[in-house]
TrEMBL record, chain A:
This is DUF2849 domain-containing protein. InterPro entries: DUF2849. The lineage of its organism: Bacteria, Pseudomonadati, Pseudomonadota, Alphaproteobacteria, Hyphomicrobiales. It comes from Acuticoccus mangrovi. It comes from the Bacteria. Pfam families: DUF2849.
TrEMBL record, chain B:
Pfam families: NIR_SIR, NIR_SIR_ferr. Keywords: 4Fe-4S, Heme, Iron, Iron-sulfur, Metal-binding, Oxidoreductase. InterPro entries: NIR_SIR_4Fe-4S, NiRdtase/SiRdtase_haem-b_fer, Nit/Sulf_reduc_fer-like_dom_sf, NO2/SO3_Rdtase_4Fe4S_dom, NO2/SO3_Rdtase_4Fe4S_sf, NO2/SO3_Rdtase_FeS/sirohaem_BS. One of its GO terms (molecular function) is heme binding. Residues 52-111, 340-391 form the Nitrite/Sulfite reductase ferredoxin-like domain. This is Nitrite/sulfite reductase. It comes from Acuticoccus mangrovi. The keyword Oxidoreductase applies. Residues 119-271, 451-549 form the Nitrite/sulphite reductase 4Fe-4S domain.
């Protein structure tokens, strides 16, 4: 279980899929690879519900390392650099499609 | 090279079968993540930002062509068609799925490979000079010692739960090409009557508390090597801190105890034990050394090789002197202009395997600077080999130049990273290759300065040990890059000093270029970057970088 502080503002629940390691976001009843599908928690009670879902889903061995992260209240984008990088995937062109220069 | 016997083969096969069972139990819900995590880490399986990452051991960086083809097969069939060669001479696959890892380990075991102890608080893959057995300046081939240590340390029951990870490097030449003094224990093998003797260094390391190793004892005879290492490990295991992971490495213990007190405890521990327990080591060393002593190439006539243009640059930078007449050591740069340092596609790995078969007695090395080496190339084959590298886009002649950048995966992959490394390396590579081409055209050839980039303070990208080091940090949820100067990984190992306030990603290439220009403008004839830095001090470089635009401290 990831030991992360629960954010105070709007947040969503994320984890990695147990089988594939893929980043996933909690929709309220399932996991999605897209953050657009994520269930946003805007108050303490809904954040607690996400926390509970994190434990349930980890215990059910569907995901690993579930935790909540904060969203910018205005833009809805992740606040943390780390979450922005997770969301965007590697920012580089993967080598398989990059012919080498001299 | 060393060949697995039945015992070795059965050992890795059994380990792969054990992990298959552990994965099955995890997927069946019989093991929680807390229970499974230490098991997967002991088999090199991490959970990174986007996927599981499997780190495969390449013992002391030595690969056969067949093993390289196995690595290519894994890249193509279990990853996204590429792998990342690391500063610990291993390879990492960034996109593995948990369910596939047992099959990957079976395939590796069949090729005499594994992922054992590539993670966790144990003795990690022993590293060495990538030119071992081939270098023109070599005194002792360090590979037999490395293999002996691999066998001694693999699943060593007493050292399976150390306070923290433990890294050992071995060199056997005057020039240190393995950053030996930045290891928990570093060994320099020297010639002796029958088997080598060793200078043993201790307490080096990078991370958040970089330290250069101190000499523990010089000229230790072979018979005392394993008893001494065993006692060194035991004293560390007993006294190394377990309450704070940032103070748990042996470098902190040695610093806190003092080298003399640590040494006294080690000798006291040795005095209580029967050295006969290690008597078998001599015979085993001889058995292992025989694999390497039957050197794969015999002396032939030296053939002068010269070229023009890019071929001349490649000969100057990527081809090194060999201990066997008529041969050369060829380094294949994985640092083409704009490339990701250390990454190679499956197709490239297969090509290198073919080249090894055709020109290098079927052998390949991985360097701690994230390049590949063909160690046994006849001089007469250099031109043909170069032509085939050109066709594959692997002929960049920049080994030892500043564009030969070390970079960790950084925040594009790594769960621990605090900033991206790879895009910084790519931007610098673009800039530096252009500078190097201009210098070459003007008839100027300059070695270094070395340039290493880490995406966090753990320093996998060896930034502390670089002439110019770059450390990526998160400041107010934005990337900020700190520059250090004056570090070096060779025999005169030193930790770099922070230059000043940090930079944005976009500012880094200009800052690095100004540092190089300040060196070029102020150096004496033939003076290296580190010598110039020591003579001139930080102020010259600080003025060059900051005087135009004073910055807010990061």
């Amino acid at each position: 279980m990831a030991k992360q502080r629960v954010p105070k503002g709007p947040s969503v629940l994320t984890a990695n899929d147990l089988l594939t390691g893929t980043i996933v976001y909690w929709t309220g009843d399932d996991w999605s690879a897209s953050m657009h599908d994520a269930l946003r928690a805007d108050d303490e009670a809904s954040r607690a519900a996400l926390e509970a879902a994190a434990r349930t889903e980890e215990d059910a061995n569907r995901v690993v390392g579930a935790y909540l992260f904060a969203l910018d209240p205005e833009t809805g984008a992740p606040v943390a650099l780390r979450e922005r990088q997770r969301l965007g995937g590697p920012s580089i062109i993967l080598p398989i499609s990059t012919p080498r220069a001299a | 090279m060393y060949q697995y016997d039945g015992h070795d083969q059965a050992f890795v096969a059994a380990r792969a079968a054990e992990f298959r069972d552990q994965v099955a139990r995890r997927l069946a819900g019989q093991l929680s993540e807390d229970e499974f995590k230490p098991l997967r880490l002991k088999n090199g399986l991490y959970l990174q930002l986007h996927a599981y990452m499997l780190r495969v051991a390449i013992p002391y960086g030595v690969l056969s062509s067949g093993q390289m083809r196995t690595l290519a097969h894994l890249a193509d069939n279990y990853d996204r068609g590429y792998g990342h060669f690391t500063t610990r001479q291993n390879i990492q696959y960034n996109w593995t799925e948990l369910k596939d890892v047992p099959d990957m380990l079976d395939i590796l075991a069949e090729a005499g490979m594994h992922a054992i102890q590539t993670s966790g608080n144990c003795i990690r893959n022993v590293t060495t000079d990538a030119f071992a057995g081939a270098a023109g300046d070599e005194e002792v081939d360090p590979r037999a010692t490395c293999e002996l240590l691999r066998q001694w340390s693999s699943l060593h029951p007493e050292f399976a739960f150390l306070p923290r990870k433990f890294k050992i490097a071995v060199i056997g030449a005057a020039e240190d090409r393995a950053a030996m003094k930045f290891h928990d224990i570093g060994l320099r093998a020297k010639p002796d009557v029958q088997r080598p003797r060793y200078d043993i260094w201790v307490g080096g390391g990078q991370g958040r508390t970089p330290r250069v190793a101190q000499l523990f004892e010089a000229d230790v005879p072979f018979e005392r090597l394993l008893p001494t290492l065993d006692a060194m490990m035991r004293v560390y295991n007993l006294h190394g801190r377990r309450d704070n992971k940032y103070k748990a490495r042996i470098k902190i213990l040695v610093a806190e105890m003092g080298l003399d007190a640590y040494r006294d405890e080690v000798y006291a521990d040795m005095a209580e034990r029967d050295p006969a327990a290690f008597a078998v080591a001599g015979k085993e060393y001889d058995r292992i050394a025989a694999f390497f002593d039957r050197g794969p190439v015999a002396p032939i006539d030296d053939v002068p090789v010269a070229g023009e243009g890019a071929f001349a640059e490649w000969l100057d930078q990527n081809v090194s002197a060999h201990k066997v007449p008529g041969h050369a050591v060829v380094t294949i740069s994985l640092k083409a202009k704009g490339a990701i340092p250390g990454d190679a596609t499956g197709e490239e790995m297969r090509l290198v395997a073919d080249l090894a078969d055709d020109y290098s007695a079927g052998e390949i090395r991985v360097t701690h600077r994230q390049n590949l080496v063909l160690p046994f190339v006849p001089q007469s084959a250099l031109a043909t080999l170069y032509g085939r590298l050109v066709e594959a886009g692997l002929a960049t002649g920049n080994v030892g130049l500043t564009s030969d950048i070390i970079s960790c995966p950084g925040l594009d992959y790594c769960a621990l990273a605090t900033a991206r490394s790879i895009p910084i390396a790519q931007a610098l590579s673009d800039r530096l290759r252009e500078r190097e081409a201009k210098a070459r055209a003007a008839g100027v050839t300059v070695k270094g300065p070395t340039l290493n980039i880490s995406g966090c303070i753990n320093a996998c990208g060896h930034h502390h040990a670089a002439n110019i080091g770059i450390l990526g940090l998160t400041k107010a949820e934005e990337e900020s890059y700190q520059i250090t100067l004056g570090g070096r990984a060779d025999g005169g190992a030193a930790v770099g000093e922070i230059l000043g306030p940090g930079f944005t990603a976009e500012e880094v290439p200009d800052a690095v270029e100004k540092i190089i220009e300040a060196w070029e403008a102020n150096r004496l004839e033939g003076e290296s970057f580190t010598d110039a830095y020591q003579r001139l001090g930080k102020a010259v470089f600080k003025a060059a970088v900051y005087e135009e635009a004073p910055r807010v401290a990061a």
